[in-house]
Amino acid sequence: MKDILQKQLQNLLNCDLKSQFPLARSLNRKLKFFVGPTNSGKTYSAMQKLKQSNSGLYLAPLRLLALEGYEDLKSSNLEASLITGEEQIFDEDASHVCSTIEMIDFDLDVDLAIIDEVQMLDDDERGWAWVNAIIGCPAKQIIMTGSVNALDAVKKLAQYLDEDLEIVKFKRKNELHLMEKHTLLKELEPQTALIAFSRNDVLKLKQKLQKYHKVSVIYGNLSPEVRRDEARRFREKQSDILIATDAIAMGLNLPIKTILFTNHKKFDGISKRGINVNEIVQIAGRAGRYGHHEEGFIGATSRETLKHLHKEYIKPVKTIKPPFKVKISAQQLEGLSAHIKTKSLQKILKFFLDNMYFDGPFIASNIGSMLTTSKILDQKNNLKLEDKYMLSQAPVTVKSPIILQAYDAYIAAVIKNKVVRYKPSITLPKKAITQRDLLLVEDEVKKISLYLWLSYKFPKLFPDSVKASISRASFNSFIEKSLKLNLKDERENNNKKFSNKFPPRRRKRF
Known about the structure:
Elements: H1 2-13, E1 14-16, H2 22-25, E2 30-35, H3 42-52, E3 56-60, H4 63-75, E4 80-83, E5 88-89, E6 96-100, E7 110-115, H5 127-136, E8 139-146, H6 151-161, E9 164-169, E10 175-178, E11 192-195, H7 199-209, E12 215-218, H8 224-235, E13 241-244, E14 258-261, E15 265-267, E16 272-274, H9 277-284, E17 295-300, H10 303-313, E18 324-326, H11 330-340, H12 345-355, E19 357-359, E20 362-364, H13 368-377, H14 385-391, H15 401-416, H16 435-457, H17 465-482
Parallel strand pairs: 1-19, 2-8, 2-9, 3-6, 3-7, 4-6, 7-8, 10-17, 11-13, 11-14, 12-13, 14-17, 18-20
Antiparallel strand pairs: 4-5, 15-16
Helix pairs in contact: 1-11, 8-17, 11-12, 15-16, 16-17
Protein name: ATP-dependent RNA helicase SUPV3L1/SUV3
Keywords: ATP-binding, Helicase, Hydrolase, Nucleotide-binding
Domain Helicase ATP-binding: 23-166
């Protein structure tokens, strides 16, 4: 009996990833890779192909891009559905679906699928989703779009799959120039984007510049709706300067003439380091938008940062190398749990990382966010393993007390099978005074995103998706108005009690 169990375990630990997607394997798929730099028209060309297909799928890296793809199809008089982790707009007559890449349905076959920003397969947190989509997307024809650093990776995956691959190369539509002299803040021209690498730095620059310019801001903590509105203001010339983090590097098409880096160092989650050539190229490519400008310019606001750009920019782009990271599946989780006799999500994830072997260019990997949430979930009693797995992938920001408290209450509701109504954690004042005021509202919007994600997974337990969406619109409107104000740094305002303006509701109301 022991030998049989050991053999079953060894079979479980040796996985041929392509065999996990039988529908894709049955379709005799044709792969295409539209490869080129930003501003080369590759995604536009792919979308034109999608519109001509009888049925199709657009897999986006961001909710914002999935929405833009959906609206593009609808404006072309095509019936479409939108599916993200937070919202679903279903059309029974839809021939096309726009989705965030994690929400792909591996049982829905289509004629053509676009997998956008394929270089993301190298991302530590989300790369697994691109790997799964490339291998398992059930479409007769797959068009991948991405940068040249993903070319070797795509070739290796096609070879592993033994599927035909056609490479279509795109060139940038206009020239991009690296400036020789740094630009002072007082010398900024309209249609310039300043790049900083933290929310705090973005807001500091905004406070400094809005005395002289109309300013839009974009950073990761803002909801997609607010980012979209700020981008619209810049696009429609309601603002002349954009201040952003590297959040603009993916998919935001804006009429930027010049991109200026305000710093050349960023915190990558482990340490503060200089930005590399891949990061510079991805961000800088947003300058000189074709159709708006005949050429684009890249520069910096200090000599030191410009010197770093000149040093890095001439380097070859770093190619993505195998092995490619694979996340544990629900089936593997259940199988390993039975064999090593534990319901601890942390222990199963560790065992998966240490012992799982994949045929082909893959390696077992654990997602940092899953490891963090698994510690919380393993402390809860009477929580089924399948629910732990699902909840461990929820969009949780552990730095936010509002979100952590809500997450804890939502887990308790799942355990007790108890209905949870959406209740806001804060009461909005008439306007934000400090940057911290704004941060709390941003976190409340993220809490709503968590609730909406759970309402998709557990619709009976989290039934207030409409109410939560309406509240999100109200909070987003407040954020949009606040971003136009001159917000003080909380350190300048520490003599005022924040709690008077944002009275917290009791925890039981989550």
